[in-house]
Amino acid sequence: MKKLTILYILILLLSNVSELSAQSKESKYEKEKRDISTMLEAFNADAARSDFKAYFDHFAEESTFIGTDATEVWNKKEFMVWAKPYFDKKRTWNFTSLQRNIYFSKDGKLAWFDELLDTQMKICRGSGVVEKINGQWKVKQYVLSVTVPNDVVDKVVSEKASIEDLLIKQLKTQK
């Protein structure tokens, strides 16, 4: 009976240690989620304020921005060149997050997110990958997409068909 009681206590202690470890891991990721959310909020606010340096400091040196137009795929330097006139004229974008999800790699060094944004284009989706570099989360890839309600997809496709048919032909010949 004494051995059974000791065994029961050991099992109880081990289950508590395991539970504490899981809670500790979860709370670590909760802090990281807050840090990433804070960075993304600043990222959007810096664009809205037309703060060129602060906005681009959120990007890793090796990063990619993918815009809403099929031709918009830029590395950081190319995106900076494209965006500079908008920042200089104080005609940047103002995105606010409506809903955000953040996920982590097993080692916790990478995270990816998706969010619905309130923008001048109405609801858009921002998604991307962030990496912790020198203790700070940096954008490695950002993708901005215009959402299209299912009820109007046919109208949107009809509207963009003539423009994108040409691009489709061009892209197929480049393969």
From TrEMBL:
This is SnoaL-like domain-containing protein. Residues 1-22 form the signal peptide. It comes from the Bacteria. InterPro entries: NTF2-like_dom_sf, SnoaL-like. Residues 36-148 form the SnoaL-like domain. Keywords: Signal.
